[in-house]
Specification:
Chain lengths: 462, 273, 437
């Protein structure tokens, strides 16, 4: 007995009711002057019955599962010994954890303490009866509602309208999920950030030059507050993004110009998908490439010419990130350049301009807003890129503009702070959410501006 | 097309009327144009005289624009396009290997159907040609060229206070005059105009037509037009094209009052087109 | 005056054509460079990764007796399974090289064979109990350092690149010492080494020992995660696209939804990870490291991609078809389900596959929800702790052993193979069903 099985059984019953509903409709039609006399098609009546069965049942399952843990918790509290309760919330949680694990792995016998065994047995039986209760409740509901809906099938019943309004509500709800996602992102990040800023001053966070959250592992340690000055992270992010754009913009833009203006259709048909392959490679692969191939190479070259290069230099991460972004810049610029009307090129050619003069002095200036928009999108992507920097940039929060040194970025710190077994409420983990908030806001602003610019540009030439 | 006209077209071997002039600026000799396998222009021979406006008329798709675009090698930008025969500018072939299209287009300017100002200021639009060709030695000279070009295009008084406004902010008629100013700023010898007024209202059209008449003093002008009235108003000679062939050339007056060929007559009298 | 123009233009021509040439070649250089980045990237991965699909074996005569295994012939199955197979292997090694007597040397000798060999030996024994009491000639998995040399077919008589040979390009880079190289060479000369296709790479889960580590667990984890992603994102995205394209009224709310979707598509993936951590793991208490949470997070992430491409596909269906259906009295829902949706389906599926390919390669948000655990066991359901292929790549790339580098690249090759297949499917789908209206 599991929720998956329950859902499967519900769906099976729903299907059966669909068939019943359809047949009932045929039967009703026979006695009341044929199918022409019915308001809707038989399958609409079937769907009507099915909707009556499935939706309430699924709602019950979801609701039950949401409240079950709380109810079981309070019922179990009595069987947890007072000695544990006296030790405070944390030990209750620990105790519960042990019991839960034993029950989940179906291995109550592994608990040596008889008191614990008793609790575990009680938990198991509570869970079992909860499951049983849910099963019975859901099945009864499905069957009863199905019978009820079948009874309502008459020639005048507007089954199609009702089913279609359900369908349309589903469509509408699906469209709002995108908004819910954004709201979810904003709320979750904002909520945790506010908790962070109740512990660390916002001004210190935004203007502080020193980032060392590692000292804040335990509250009773010396220097337990840690240092949460985010400036080195921002400068590190900017440095790497800047290097990336230095690679991506010239290569991407010139590739786009060549493909859009000079290349024959054949060359274009071959080169464009190849460039897009660069965009399809997962970022973790670029990370491996940066960490295992490019970084050692740069270090070797550096030591050959007598420069000291950190093994996790900003240069390596930035270069590889730039390569990753080339196709992004080139395909956006390509779209923008091809959108410049041919008549403008003709005007320039007609005056005796060479092709490159036409491109440099007429096409590019005309396409500039769109290109800038595309570059802003690329910058936003560079800032938010995670895997390359996690693997190839360092953890040390150096405040430097030297690309040969190691720097760290916002995304690297988020990953470092949140992976591993940290307690969720520590200042450290909350700091990750504050960084996440900054990241979200910055990229959002860039995206909104970029999308607006690009859209305005498109409208101009449509 | 009536079957009689069809027959007349089939039988057309040679252009009717006098295709040459005494004082030619440009001479097209037996020009054929192909797009891939499709032939668009058949054996067209026609002169353009100095200081004259020649109008090219004909139903849509008759090849008049294609022919016009051959005269400053704008068709070079279309990869599948091939030109046979020869076109001479002051006696030199345009299509010989020694002729440079950039050079040629500086001498033979073009104004397009749709006004196509660059995404630049009015000033920069006009200054574009002189700048790329290096015609002005300093800013003052450039200013002079821009001002005189705008003046000759009859636009200066309307825009002199906003030379830095974008070219696209002008009205359609003004934009087209801007494009004409842009063309004459390079000081070409011939100006080709491809239906320059088709996107404009009657008032703007009248203004452009006046301008064309004034420009005739200094330039040889070939104008493709859809409107017979316009051809009658601005041109000295008229060439009638039909399905890629040049049917008849002659004095504008003669063509419109007393056409020789049946097809020309049909078109002039509005039986098709 | 006109002559003046001609002169000046002629004077400028040479310089201008030179500039034209330069500009054009810059374009060619940019493209060639971008493509060579691709070649170098793929080349370095293939070069480093292909040995991952090979494994070296060493042949040993292993005696399975009461003496070597420490169990009697009539022991219970469970007892026999846990017998001292390591001891048997070590005895076999000592017998193969009787001259090795010092304790330290023996320990070095033992290191030539993978620590996983005892489990293979145990399985071999349990397959057929009658093997007890006999000596068998068996191929055992070599340890990673030996493996690295054997499968690249290195000359084992060369010096090791340390000390005086530090600059010798010809010398071997290995952690083995000269004694170990000598024994290995002896195996090799006797024809007792073999390089085979590494089936363990596909059948094992992760392991601390590089030569035993495989991608099975990660593959299954990826499959579960992708399944959840598909089940959630496909219906919701298509429904959202239909709503926006066919039913949405022209109002503020619709505008907000549209802008929102476009922006969501550009939100950094790691932010979705934060959402998953805060909402699904901390608030809703879903299990950490589980494909179900990974799938939910990835489906939220791929929703915008699929919605945008589905809308494009729906938009491409000409209005005349909608009008025709409506003219016959079909309801708006029927117009969509009977006519528009089937015609747009190839485009929608193409977009979905591309979205899923993105999800398959995604790493960062999964790190946030704890899918970075060290997973040896193959996950059995969507709620079991699991990892996915790109995260496995990330984990191996971090491992210090050299042998993990090739595993990393090998796993990348498998990942890329899946991505290529998915994208090719999308391209073919588009080609096959592409309709020009």
């Amino acid at each position: 007995m599991s929720v998956t099985n329950l859902i499967l059984v519900t769906l099976l019953l729903t299907f059966l009711y669909f068939v019943f509903g359809r047949q009932k409709a045929f039967a009703v039609a026979k006695t009341s002057g044929g199918l022409q006399g019915m308001h809707s098609l038989p399958s609409h009546y079937g769907a009507y019955v099915a909707v009556w069965c499935a939706l309430p049942a699924l709602a019950i399952i979801v609701g039950w599962k949401l409240f079950e843990p709380t109810v079981i918790d309070s019922m179990l509290a009595s069987s947890i010994p007072d000695s544990v309760h006296e030790l405070g919330e944390k030990s209750v949680a620990l105790y519960r954890n042990e019991i839960n694990n034993a029950v989940d792995s179906n291995n109550i016998a592994s608990l040596t303490d008889p008191v614990k065994q008793a609790t575990a047995t009680r938990l198991a039986s509570l869970q079992n009866s909860a499951m049983l209760g849910l099963f019975v409740l859901v099945l009864c509901t499905v069957i009863a509602l199905g019978v009820f809906a079948l009874k309502r099938i008459t020639p005048d019943m507007t089954a199609r309208h009702r089913v279609e309004s359900v369908v349309r509500s589903f469509l509408f709800i699906s469209a709002t999920i995108a908004i819910l996602t954004t709201v979810g992102i904003v709320l979750s990040v904002l909520f945790e950030s506010l908790r962070f800023f109740s512990q660390v001053n916002l001004i210190d966070f935004v203007t502080g030059l020193n980032w060392s959250p590692q000292t804040a592992i335990r509250a009773d340690q010396v220097g337990s507050t840690g240092a949460f000055g985010a400036i080195p992270l921002f400068t590190g992010t900017l440095l790497i993004s800047f290097i990336a754009m230095l690679v991506a913009v010239p290569f991407g833009l010139m590739s786009a110009i060549y493909l859009a203006e000079y290349a024959t259709p054949r060359v274009r048909a071959i080169v464009k998908p190849l460039l897009e392959m660069l965009a399809g490679i997962p970022t973790v692969v670029y990370g491996v490439f940066a960490a295992l191939t490019v970084a050692p190479l740069i270090k070797d070259i550096g030591s050959a010419v007598g420069l000291s290069v950190a093994s996790e230099s900003a240069l390596a991460a930035g270069l590889v990130m730039g390569i990753m972004i080339i196709p992004f810049v080139s395909s956006l610029s390509d779209d923008v350049i091809t959108a410049v009307p041919q008549s403008m090129r003709d005007g320039s050619f007609g005056l005796g301009a060479t092709h490159s003069e036409t491109i440099r002095k007429v096409v590019i200036p005309a396409a500039l807003p769109g290109i800038v928009g595309g570059i802003l999108l690329a910058v936003s992507r560079a800032i938010g890129e995670t895997m390359i920097v996690v693997m190839a940039a360092g953890l040390a929060a150096n405040l430097t503009a030297n690309p040969l040194e190691a720097v760290t970025t916002v995304t690297v710190q988020i990953v470092t702070l949140l992976t591993g077994d940290q307690e969720f409420d520590s200042t450290k983990t909350l700091a990750a959410f504050a960084l996440g908030l900054m990241l979200f806001v910055i990229t959002l602003v860039l995206n909104v501006i970029a999308l607006y610019v690009v859209r305005r540009y498109r409208e101009q030439y449509e | 097309m009536s079957s009689a006209a069809e027959k007349a077209f089939e039988e057309l071997k040679e252009t009717v009327g006098r295709v040459t002039v005494d004082n030619p600026k440009m001479q097209a000799k037996n020009v054929d144009v192909f797009y891939g396998d499709k032939q668009a222009i058949f054996d067209v021979t026609c002169d353009i005289g100095k200081n004259e406006v020649i109008a090219m008329i004909g139903p849509s798709g008759c090849g008049k624009s294609t022919f016009l675009r051959c005269m400053n090698r704008m068709n070079d930008t279309i990869p599948s396009c091939r030109v046979g025969g020869d076109i001479l500018l002051e006696g030199d072939s345009l299509y010989s290997s020694s002729v440079d299209p950039v050079m040629l287009r500086a001498r033979v300017g073009m104004v397009f159907q749709k006004p196509n100002p660059f995404a630049k200021s009015i000033y920069d639009n006009v200054a574009y040609g002189p700048r790329i060709h290096g015609l002005a030695n300093n800013r003052a000279e450039l200013d002079d060229i821009v001002e005189s070009s705008l003046q000759r295009a009859g636009l200066f008084d309307e825009v002199k206070d906003r030379l830095n406004a974008p070219g696209t902010s002008l009205s359609g008629g003004q934009q087209q005059r801007l494009c004409i100013a842009r063309t004459i700023a390079v000081n070409p010898e011939v100006i080709l105009m491809d239906e320059p007024c088709s996107a404009l209202d009657p008032i703007a059209t009248a203004r452009i037509e006046e301008l064309i008449d004034e420009l005739r003093e200094n330039y040889a002008i070939a104008i493709v037009t859809h409107s017979m009235q316009q051809a009658a108003r601005v041109s000295q000679r008229t060439a009638y094209f039909h399905l890629g062939k040049l049917v008849e050339v002659g004095e504008t007056k003669t063509i419109f009052t007393n056409p020789t060929h049946e097809l020309t007559e049909n078109y002039i009298t509005g039986r098709f087109g | 005056m006109s002559n003046n123009t001609t002169e000046k233009v002629r004077a400028s021509l040479q310089k201008r054509y030179f500039k034209e040439k330069v500009f054009r070649s810059i374009g060619v250089v940019a493209i060639v460079a971008s493509l060579s980045f691709l070649v170098v990237l793929l080349g370095s991965i293939i070069y480093k990764g292909y040995p991952a699909f090979k494994a070296s074996y060493i042949q040993l005569d292993v005696t399975l007796t009461e003496e070597t295994l420490d169990v009697s012939a009539d022991a219970e199955d469970s007892e026999l399974r846990r017998a001292n197979y390591l001891g048997a292997i070590r005895t076999a090694l000592r017998e193969r090289f009787p001259e090795v007597t010092k304790r330290g040397d023996k320990r070095n000798l033992y290191r030539l064979i993978s620590s996983g060999a005892e489990y293979a030996l145990s399985d071999f024994m349990m397959e057929d109990r009658s093997r007890f009491g006999q000596t068998h000639s068996l191929w055992l998995l070599a340890d990673d350092e030996a493996d690295a040399l054997l499968k690249r077919n290195k000359d084992l008589t060369k010096p090791i690149r340390t000390g005086e040979n530090a600059k010798n390009k010809d010398a071997l880079i290995t952690r083995l010492n000269t004694d170990q190289l000598g024994w290995l060479q002896s195996f090799k000369e006797a024809g007792e080494t073999d390089v085979r296709l590494a089936s363990t790479f596909f059948t094992n889960g992760d392991s601390r020992e590089a030569e035993q580590a495989g991608i099975r667990a990660a593959l299954i984890g990826s499959a579960y995660t992708l399944l959840i992603t598909f089940v959630l994102s496909f219906p919701i995205a298509v429904a959202a696209a239909i709503y926006l394209e066919e039913f949405a009224p022209q109002n503020k709310f619709t505008d907000i939804v549209e802008v929102n979707i476009n922006n969501l598509a550009a939100v950094p993936s790691i932010v979705f990870g934060l959402l998953g951590l805060a909402v699904f793991i901390n608030y809703l208490q879903l299990p950490r490291s589980a494909p179900v949470v990974g799938g939910i997070v990835l489906s939220l992430m791929t929703l915008p991609t699929i919605i945008i491409s589905s809308r494009a596909a729906l938009k491409a269906v000409p209005p005349s078809i909608r009008e025709a259906a409506r003219g016959l009295g079909a309801s708006p829902v029927q117009v969509v389900t009977h006519h528009v949706l089937p015609l747009a389906m190839p485009g929608i599926l193409t977009g979905t596959i591309i979205g899923l390919a993105q999800a398959l390669g995604e790493t960062a948000p999964l790190l946030m929800i704890g899918m970075v655990a060290f997973i040896v066991d193959i996950p059995n359901s969507v709620t079991d702790p699991a990892t996915v292929l790109p995260v496995q790549v990330f984990l191996w790339a971090d491992a210090p052993e050299r042998a993990f580098t090739e595993r990393t690249s090998g796993a990348i090759l498998v990942l890329l193979a899946f991505l290529v297949v998915m994208n090719l499917t999308a391209v073919l789908l588009r080609k096959k069903f592409e309709r020009r209206w």
